[in-house]
């Protein structure tokens, strides 16, 4: 039998947990508003889709949510009803013997099984349809599909364009920013040179693994031109969390122009095309690096007047005020600092294949696998201290460390001037 003191303890516990629930709800709401939860339109949301593959996956999600929500409401209602209706109200109730035990009601149990099976079938239909649909480009559109090979490296992505061959070189190759034609299905062949990675562009298509020694593929389509955030979605080592990329979808004419331009060898800045009178030496303010400070490119200010796609477009034009002499000095340093061992600048020096191709590095919006904005300051930060920006990255561990490479401020200025001239 319960003593009054244990009863009051019980009441206090109930009151305390009620207060805890209210507090938790307040924090949850505050947190959600912080995360733009209600709009659900973050860069890496899968709730706002931009193409048919992501859309079909979202529909599966909703089907599952509705079925489970209905189950939740029914079960919670029955539970609430039983709790209130049959609760012990008096001491007599509390001391009453337990009701007569039975083996249950066969009708209720059979119908519960029946309803569960129906619920599963209801979820299975859209799921199976989506599995078939997302597996490969639909038969009738396969002819029209564009093909890209995406290859995972610790901790960046390489994109080869087998449909765009360059004489004497092979397929067009870029890194970390995959440009695709909008309104056209794109088949992405997934490969990796090292560990398992996973290719994920939330607004365009769900995750598919890049598995060692086993080809994999997926497809996606961006209905309209746009700029999309992507991310490796399978833990792959030290810098997995900052192994990002971008997908830029362009209309047909813009895409053709992009391809034609990327096929060209690297741009060479001669004194004739440079205008040193306007040359302003970029002031590098690099001092120390803190996580999440300005420079991380995963945030896009929603109040910004420029869309991410327009920002990308602006990045395609050469900077004003280039200094041909400084650029030439940077190009020299690019050789003497052994950058050429891992990087290729097609038409200039370098035939490295273990790092991203840098032939047109300056026209990217990001560097270091979608981590930093591609500005002179951020590029200097990356070249001088890659290990601080991206723990364990191969440029540092297999390049700077064994070859004892250090880059000082002046060398960084020249290297950055050179790399920023590669449009
Ligand atoms: C040992 C090979 C190696 C050497 C040497 C090396 N790099 Fe790299 N570099 C890499 C790798 C690997 C990455 C990709 C790192 C990542 O994002 O995780 C990279 C990334 C970069 C990027 C960013 C590219 C992009 O698309 O995001 C730039 C710029 C760059 N390196 C410049 C240089 C310069 C300048 C030098 C010489 C001072 C140099 N690298 C030396 C391997 C190397
Ligand atoms: Cu990865």
Considering the chains and any ligands shown, give keywords for the structure:
single chain, alpha+beta, Immunoglobulin-like, Cytochrome Bc1 Complex, Chain D, domain 2, 2 domains, 5-stranded mixed sheet, 17% strand, binds heme C, binds copper (II) ion, membrane, cytochrome-c oxidase activity, transport
Can you walk through the features of this model?
The protein is built from 11 helices and 12 strands. The protein is α+β, with helices and mostly antiparallel strands. It is 39% helix and 17% strand. About 4% of the residues have low confidence. The N and C termini lie far apart (83 Å). 30% of the residues are buried. It folds into 2 domains: 211 residues, Sandwich (Immunoglobulin-like), CATH 2.60.40.420; 145 residues, Cytochrome Bc1 Complex, Chain D, domain 2 (Orthogonal Bundle). The longest helix is centred in the first third of the chain and has 34 residues. Helix 2 packs antiparallel against helix 4 and helix 8 packs across helix 11. The strands form 3 sheets. The chain has a 5-stranded mixed β-sheet. Strands 4-10-9-6-7 form a 5-stranded mixed β-sheet. The chain has a two-stranded antiparallel sheet with strand order 11-12. The structure holds heme C and copper (II) ion (CU). The site of copper (II) ion has 8 residues, from loops.
Concise summary:
This protein is an alpha+beta fold and 423 residues long.
SSE layout:
Blueprint: H1 4-34, H2 52-85, H3 91-95, H4 106-135, E1 146-153, E2 156-166, E3 170-175, E4 177-181, E5 186-192, E6 197-201, E7 205-210, E8 216-220, E9 226-232, E10 244-250, H5 252-263, H6 308-314, H7 324-336, E11 366-367, E12 372-373, H8 376-384, H9 386-389, H10 394-400, H11 409-420
Helix pairs in contact: 2-4, 7-11, 8-11
Bound molecules: heme C (HEC) and copper (II) ion (CU).
């Amino acid at each position: 039998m319960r003593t009054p003191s244990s009863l009051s303890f019980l009441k206090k516990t109930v009151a305390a947990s009620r207060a805890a629930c209210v507090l938790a709800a307040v924090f949850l709401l505050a947190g959600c508003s912080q995360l733009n939860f209600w709009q659900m339109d973050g860069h890496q949301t899968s709730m706002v889709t931009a193409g048919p593959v992501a859309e079909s996956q979202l529909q599966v999600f909703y089907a599952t949510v509705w079925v489970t929500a209905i189950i939740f409401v029914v079960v919670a209602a029955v539970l609430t009803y039983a709790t209130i209706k049959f609760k012990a109200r008096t001491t007599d109730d509390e001391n009453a013997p337990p009701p007569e035990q039975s083996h249950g009601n066969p009708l209720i149990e059979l119908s519960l099984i029946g309803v569960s099976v129906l619920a599963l079938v209801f979820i299975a239909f859209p799921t199976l349809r989506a599995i078939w649909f997302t597996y490969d480009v639909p038969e009738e559109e396969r002819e029209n599909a564009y093909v890209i090979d995406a290859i995972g490296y610790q901790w960046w992505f390489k994109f080869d364009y087998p449909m765009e061959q360059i004489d004497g070189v092979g397929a067009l190759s870029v890194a970390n920013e995959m440009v695709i034609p909008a309104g056209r299905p794109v088949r992405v062949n997934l490969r990796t040179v090292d560990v398992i990675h996973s290719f994920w562009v939330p607004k365009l298509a769900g995750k598919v693994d890049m598995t060692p020694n086993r080809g994999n593929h997926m497809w996606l389509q961006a209905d309209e031109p746009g700029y999309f955030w992507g991310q490796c979605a399978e833990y792959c080592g030290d810098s997995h969390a900052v192994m990002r990329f971008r997908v830029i979808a362009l209309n047909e004419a813009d895409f053709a122009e992009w391809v034609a331009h990327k096929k060209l060898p690297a741009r060479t800045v001669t004194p004739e095309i440079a205008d040193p009178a306007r040359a302003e030496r970029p002031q590098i303010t690099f001092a120390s690096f803190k996580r999440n400070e300005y420079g991380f490119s995963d945030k896009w200010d929603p109040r910004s007047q420029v869309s991410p796609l327009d920002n990308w477009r602006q990045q395609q034009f050469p900077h004003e005020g280039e200094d041909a002499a400084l650029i030439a000095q940077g190009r020299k340093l690019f050789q003497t600092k052994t950058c050429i061992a891992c990087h290729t600048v097609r038409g200039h020096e370098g035939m490295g294949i273990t790092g991203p191709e840098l032939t047109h590095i300056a026209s990217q919006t990001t560097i270091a696998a979608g981590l930093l904005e591609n500005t002179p300051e951020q590029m200097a930060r990356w070249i001088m201290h890659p290990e601080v920006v991206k723990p364990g990255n191969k440029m540092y561990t297999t390049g700077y460390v064994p070859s004892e490479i250090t880059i000082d401020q002046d060398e960084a200025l020249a290297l950055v001037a050179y790399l920023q001239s590669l449009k």
